[in-house]
Amino acid sequence: MAEPIRVCITGAAGQIGYSLVYMVGSGAVFGPDTPVILHLLDIKPMMTVLNGVCMEISDCALPCVRDVIATDDPAVAFKDIESAFLVGSMPRKEGMERKDLLAANVKIFKVQAQISAKLGIPVTDVKNVIIWGNHSSTQFPDVRHASAIVNGQTVSVYDAIKDDAFLKGEFITSVQKRGAAVIAARKLSSAMSAAKAACDHMRSIWEGTSEGHFVSMGVFSDGSYNLPEGVMYSFPVTIKDKKWSIVQGLPIDDFAQEMMDKSAKELCEERDDAIAVCED
Question: Which family does this protein fall into (predicted)?
Answer without folding.
Answer: Belongs to the LDH/MDH superfamily. MDH type 2 family.
